[in-house]
C-alpha cells in the first residue's frame, strides 16, 4: 500500500462522514479488490492452469493410505462449474481422482472443490491437482448396487452389504467371497440411576433401528452411505443416530462416522455405554487364531486364542515363532507329540477387553469364557484404540480415533474360542460410571432475572432455570474397520493403528490458499523481514504452543470435553477456573476457532490443524443443539458445555465450521451448517437480550438482534449456504439485511440492537439518531464475514457503512462526535482486537494515517510476551507451566488482530 497524501486522507475522512441513506447511486457495486497479502510474499501471481501443489499434512508420506479426501480453493473466475481435474504424481503418472464442487463464487465459477483418491494411491510427495480430463481407471473403481432391500458396495477388494431397515447397519463384509464381518449394529446401555447410592440400578439394553439409508456418493473413487435411525428397547425409540459409511476404490476398509444426539431426560436416562458391535466368523484352529491390541510408540500386544508359548513342554521353535508372528503354524504332525496330544488341555481364551478409563491409563484383561474370572494381562498409558481378532485366514482390524483423548473408551472381543467372535467398540465404556448430564447446581435460590444478574456479577455464570439442559447435544466418533485376509504382522498392526490415530490428510500449500483469496483474504504468510513483524510472528507461535501445552498439562480430555479449551486462569490455585461459572469451558467465546484456522492457513502447521480439527468436532456437536427447543443455537461458556442460559447463534455459527468443511469436504460438518439456516426463528422465543435492563423494547418487531453477535452470525450461515449452491432464499435474506443496515442513518451504529423479522430478513433501526456500539459485536466472526460479503457482493452502500464503523469504533471521541454527531456508547474493552477494524478501513481507503493509528491501537496496551513460569511442588497436584495473566479471550482477539494487521497494514508498522 503506497503512502497517502494529506489530501487523500482528508478525502477519505469526508467519505466516512457522509450520510448512509440508500440511494440508487449508493447501491452501485464497487469492485471487489484483493488485499496486498493475497499473493505469496516474493512469489509470482497464481496460475490456475498450473494447478495446486499438494502435501501431506504431517510431513512424511504415510506408510498406509486407505483413500483420502481433501478440499481445494480456486480464484474467482478461474474455472466453470463443470471443470474436471486430474492428479499427477512426480513421475507424471496420473492418479485416479473423483471431484465434486463444494462452493461457488457469485459468478458461478468454482470456489472450492473436493477430491477423493483411491486406497494406496498418491503415496508420494509433490502431487499436483490441475485442470484436465481424467482418464478412466477401470481397475480403481468403487461400485454401488442400490436395491430395494439392501445396498451393496464393492471397492474391488471388499463387498459390503447394507440393509435398508432393521437392527443391522452392516449385514456383511466379504473379501474374496468369504465373509469377514457380519451383523454390524449399534448398541447402548442405560441406567435409571447415576450410581447405586440411591438403591438398585436397573439397566436397559438398546440396539439400532435403521429408518433410512441414502446413497450420497456412488463412485467412481469414493462412495458414501448415510444411515439414520434411533436406538430401540422394546417400544421405546430414542437416541437418534446418523452413521456414514465411507468406501474408497481399492480399499480393504470401511470408515464409519457415528453421531448420536441425546434426547432423553437427564434425570432418568444415564447412558452407561454406547458402541458399535459386529460379528467375526472364525474358521481357523484356536492356535491359529489371534488377538491384537495396539499400544504406545508402535507397541503391539498380541496373543493366540490358545497359546503355544510358555508351556511346560515345548511344541517346537517353529510353532512358537509362527504363532507370535501371526503366521500359520506348521502341520500338527510336526509338533512335539507331548504337546500335540494335550492341546485340548491348554485353556482357550475367548474374551478380551482393553479399557481406557482415563487419559493416562489403560488395562488389558482376558478370560476363558463367561462365568469364569478375569485375568489381568497388561497395562499401559495411552492406547491408540485399535485391535484385531481373526485367524491366519482372515479377520477384522478395528479402531476408534481419539481413543484415549475421549476416555472412557473400551474395546471388547468376546467368544473368540467359538466359531464367531463378537467385537464392540465402546465410545463410552460400560466399565466407567454412567454419563451424568444433570446441571451441576440447584440454582442457588435464583428465581428472577434480577437474581440471575447478581449471579453473573459474582461467578460470571448466566444461569436460568431449565436452560442448562443437555437435550439436543451430540457427539460424533470416527471408526475404521479393516477386512483383512490374514492376521496382520505386528509391524502392520502398528501401521493400522497409526492410520486410525491420525488419518493421513492431504492439503495445499499456504500460498495456494492465500492466492485464491478465500476466507476474506485478510491474512498473509509469516513474514520476519522486519524486526517488529518477527516479534509478532514469534509471539503468535508462542501463544499457540502454550495452549497446546495446556491441553496436556491440565488434561483437557474426556468424551464431552476433548477439543475445547478453558476461558480464564486462576493464578491463586494455579489452574484454569474449571469450576467457576462462565470462566470455565470456552465454547468458542471471542473466536479461538478463527484464530486457530487462520493460523493454520498461513503456516500449514499440522499441530495447529489437529487442534483446530478437534475443536471443530467438539464445538459443532457438544456446544450447540441439534434438536429440541434450542436447535440451531449454541451455549455460552460455562462449567458444563451446555450449562449456560445464553443460547445464541454467535456460538453455533457456521463461520467457525466452514474452514474444516472446505478443507476436508466433511459431510457431518456440512450437515451441521445446514442445521443453522433457520436459527433466526428461535430468537423470538430465546431472546438473546431478555435479561438486559437497558435493552430496547422489541416494539413492533418479533426479535431484537445485534448486528454482530446475532445478524453477523446468521449472515455467515447464509453466505455459506449461498456459496454451497443451496437455497437462494438465504442469499436473499442476506442481501436484504445488508441493504437495511446500509440504509440506516448511522449504519452499523444504529444496528447495535435492531428490530429483526425472521420471516423475511429485514432489519429495522430502533434507536433513531442515537449512536450505539458494543465491544462484542465485531469479535464473533463479523469482521471476517463482512470482509467476505464486501468482496463477493461488491455492495458499495454496505461497505461504506462498515468502513465507517471500522474507522470510528476506536477513534478519539472528538472525531466520533465530528463524524457521527456524538460519540458512540461502546466501552474501551477489546481495543487491541478492534485495531484490526481500523486496519481494514485503512486498507480499503488506502489511508496511511489510519494505518498508523491501527498499529498504535494494537500496541497501546502492550501485551507482555508469553513467558511461562514453572510451578511445582506442593502448590500444585502436577507441575505446570503458567502464564497467569493470559486468557483465551485476549489470546484469540490478539492473535486475529496480529494476523490481520500484518496483512492489511503491515507496511506501516511502527
Automatic annotation (TrEMBL):
Annotated segments matching region Disordered: 23-45, 193-213
Segments forming domain PcRGLX/YetA-like central beta-sandwich: 142-497
InterPro entries: PcRGLX/YetA-like, PcRGLX/YetA_2nd, PcRGLX/YetA_3rd, PcRGLX_1st, TAT_signal
Pfam families in UniProt: PcRGLX_1st, PcRGLX_2nd, PcRGLX_3rd
Domain PcRGLX/YetA-like C-terminal alpha/alpha toroid as annotated: residue spans: 503-909
Signal peptide location: none
Record PROSITE patterns: TAT (PS51318)
Family matches, as PANTHER family: CONCANAVALIN A-LIKE LECTIN/GLUCANASE, TAT PATHWAY SIGNAL SEQUENCE DOMAIN PROTEIN
Name this polypeptide is given: Tat pathway signal sequence domain protein
Domain PcRGLX/YetA-like N-terminal RIFT barrel residues, every copy: 52-131
Source taxon at top rank: Bacteria
Amino acid at each position: 500500500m503506497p503512502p497517502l497524501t494529506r489530501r487523500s486522507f482528508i478525502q477519505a475522512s469526508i467519505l466516512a462522514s457522509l450520510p448512509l441513506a440508500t440511494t440508487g447511486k449508493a447501491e452501485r457495486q464497487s469492485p471487489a479488490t484483493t488485499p496486498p497479502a493475497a499473493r505469496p510474499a516474493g512469489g509470482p501471481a497464481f496460475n490456475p492452469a498450473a494447478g495446486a501443489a499438494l502435501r501431506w499434512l504431517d510431513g512424511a508420506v504415510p506408510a498406509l493410505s486407505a483413500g483420502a479426501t481433501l478440499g481445494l480453493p480456486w480464484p474467482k473466475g478461474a474455472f466453470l462449474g463443470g471443470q474436471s481435474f486430474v492428479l499427477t504424481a512426480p513421475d507424471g503418472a496420473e492418479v485416479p481422482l473423483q471431484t465434486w464442487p463444494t462452493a461457488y463464487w457469485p459468478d458461478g465459477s468454482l470456489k472450492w472443490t473436493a477430491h477423493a483418491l483411491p486406497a494406496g494411491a498418491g503415496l508420494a510427495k509433490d502431487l499436483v491437482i490441475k485442470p484436465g480430463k481424467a482418464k478412466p481407471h477401470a481397475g480403481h473403481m468403487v461400485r454401488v448396487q442400490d436395491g430395494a432391500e439392501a445396498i451393496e458396495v464393492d471397492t474391488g477388494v471388499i463387498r459390503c452389504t447394507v440393509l435398508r431397515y432393521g437392527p443391522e447397519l452392516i449385514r456383511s463384509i466379504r473379501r474374496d467371497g468369504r465373509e469377514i464381518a457380519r451383523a454390524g449394529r449399534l448398541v447402548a446401555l442405560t441406567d435409571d440411576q447415576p450410581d447405586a447410592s440411591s438403591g438398585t440400578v436397573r439397566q436397559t439394553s438398546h440396539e439400532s433401528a435403521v429408518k433410512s439409508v441414502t446413497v450420497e456418493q456412488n463412485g467412481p473413487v469414493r462412495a458414501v452411505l448415510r444411515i439414520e435411525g434411533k436406538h430401540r428397547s422394546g417400544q421405546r425409540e430414542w437416541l437418534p443416530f446418523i452413521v456414514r459409511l465411507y468406501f474408497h476404490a481399492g480399499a480393504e476398509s470401511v470408515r464409519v462416522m457415528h453421531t448420536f444426539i441425546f434426547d432423553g431426560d437427564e434425570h432418568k436416562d444415564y447412558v452407561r455405554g454406547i458402541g458399535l458391535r459386529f460379528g467375526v466368523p472364525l474358521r481357523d484352529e484356536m492356535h491359529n487364531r489371534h488377538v491384537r491390541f495396539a499400544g504406545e510408540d508402535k507397541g503391539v500386544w498380541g496373543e493366540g486364542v490358545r497359546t503355544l508359548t510358555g508351556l511346560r513342554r515345548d511344541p517346537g521353535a517353529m510353532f512358537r515363532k509362527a504363532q507370535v508372528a501371526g503366521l500359520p503354524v506348521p502341520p500338527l504332525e510336526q509338533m512335539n507329540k507331548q504337546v500335540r496330544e494335550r492341546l485340548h488341555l491348554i485353556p482357550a481364551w475367548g474374551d478380551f477387553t482393553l479399557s481406557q478409563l482415563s487419559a493416562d491409563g489403560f488395562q488389558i484383561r482376558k478370560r476363558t469364557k463367561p462365568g469364569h474370572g478375569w485375568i489381568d494381562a497388561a497395562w499401559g498409558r495411552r492406547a491408540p484404540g485399535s485391535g484385531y481378532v481373526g485367524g491366519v485366514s482372515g479377520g477384522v482390524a478395528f479402531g476408534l480415533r481419539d481413543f484415549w483423548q475421549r476416555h472412557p473408551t473400551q474395546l471388547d472381543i468376546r467368544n473368540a474360542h467359538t466359531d464367531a467372535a463378537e467385537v464392540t467398540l465402546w465410545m463410552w465404556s460400560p466399565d466407567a460410571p454412567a454419563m451424568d448430564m444433570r446441571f451441576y447446581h440447584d440454582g442457588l435460590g435464583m428465581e428472577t432475572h434480577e437474581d440471575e444478574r447478581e449471579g453473573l456479577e459474582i461467578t460470571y455464570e448466566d444461569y436460568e432455570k431449565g436452560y442448562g439442559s443437555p437435550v439436543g447435544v451430540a457427539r460424533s466418533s470416527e471408526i475404521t474397520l479393516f477386512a483383512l485376509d490374514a492376521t496382520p504382522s505386528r509391524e502392520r498392526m502398528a501401521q493400522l493403528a497409526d492410520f486410525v490415530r491420525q488419518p493421513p490428510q492431504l492439503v495445499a500449500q499456504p500460498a495456494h490458499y492465500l492466492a485464491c483469496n478465500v476466507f476474506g483474504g485478510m491474512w498473509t504468510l509469516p513474514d520476519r523481514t522486519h524486526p517488529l513483524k518477527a516479534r509478532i510472528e514469534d509471539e503468535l507461535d508462542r501463544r499457540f504452543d502454550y495452549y497446546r501445552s495446556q491441553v496436556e498439562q491440565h488434561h483437557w480430555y474426556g468424551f464431552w470435553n476433548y477439543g475445547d479449551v478453558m476461558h480464564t486462569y486462576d493464578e491463586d490455585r494455579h489452574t484454569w477456573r474449571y469450576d467457576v461459572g462462565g470462566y470455565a469451558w470456552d465454547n468458542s467465546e471471542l473466536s479461538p476457532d478463527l484464530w486457530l484456522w487462520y493460523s493454520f492457513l498461513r503456516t500449514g502447521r499440522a499441530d495447529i490443524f489437529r487442534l483446530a480439527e478437534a475443536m471443530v468436532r467438539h464445538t459443532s456437536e457438544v456446544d450447540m443443539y441439534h434438536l429440541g427447543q434450542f436447535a440451531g443455537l449454541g451455549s455460552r461458556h460455562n462449567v458444563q458445555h451446555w450449562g449456560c442460559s445464553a443460547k445464541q447463534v454467535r456460538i453455533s455459527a457456521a463461520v467457525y465450521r466452514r474452514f474444516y468443511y472446505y478443507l476436508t469436504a466433511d459431510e457431518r460438518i456440512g450437515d451441521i451448517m445446514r442445521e443453522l439456516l433457520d436459527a433466526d426463528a428461535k430468537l423470538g422465543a430465546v431472546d438473546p437480550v431478555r435479561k438486559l435492563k437497558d435493552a430496547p423494547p422489541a416494539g413492533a418487531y418479533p426479535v431484537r438482534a445485534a448486528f454482530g453477535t446475532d445478524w453477523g452470525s446468521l449472515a455467515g450461515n447464509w453466505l455459506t449456504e449461498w456459496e454451497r449452491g443451496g437455497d437462494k432464499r438465504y442469499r436473499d435474506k442476506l442481501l436484504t439485511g445488508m441493504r437495511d443496515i446500509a440504509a440506516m442513518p448511522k449504519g452499523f451504529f444504529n444496528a447495535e440492537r435492531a428490530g429483526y423479522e425472521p420471516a423475511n430478513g429485514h432489519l429495522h433501526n430502533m434507536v433513531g439518531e442515537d449512536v450505539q456500539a458494543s465491544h462484542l459485536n465485531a469479535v464473533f466472526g463479523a469482521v471476517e464475514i463482512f470482509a467476505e460479503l464486501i468482496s463477493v457482493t461488491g455492495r458499495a452502500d454496505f461497505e461504506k457503512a462498515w468502513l465507517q464503523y471500522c474507522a470510528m469504533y476506536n477513534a478519539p471521541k472528538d472525531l466520533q462526535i465530528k463524524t457521527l454527531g456524538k460519540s458512540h456508547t461502546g466501552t474501551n474493552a477489546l481495543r487491541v482486537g478492534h485495531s484490526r477494524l481500523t486496519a481494514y478501513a485503512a486498507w480499503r481507503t488506502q489511508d496511511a494515517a489510519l494505518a498508523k493509528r491501527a498499529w498504535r491501537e494494537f500496541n497501546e496496551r502492550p501485551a507482555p510476551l508469553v513467558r511461562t513460569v514453572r510451578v511445582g511442588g506442593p502448590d500444585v497436584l502436577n507441575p505446570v507451566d503458567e502464564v497467569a495473566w493470559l486468557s483465551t479471550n485476549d489470546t484469540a482477539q490478539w492473535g486475529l488482530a496480529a494476523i490481520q494487521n500484518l496483512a492489511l497494514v503491515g507496511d506501516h508498522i511502527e
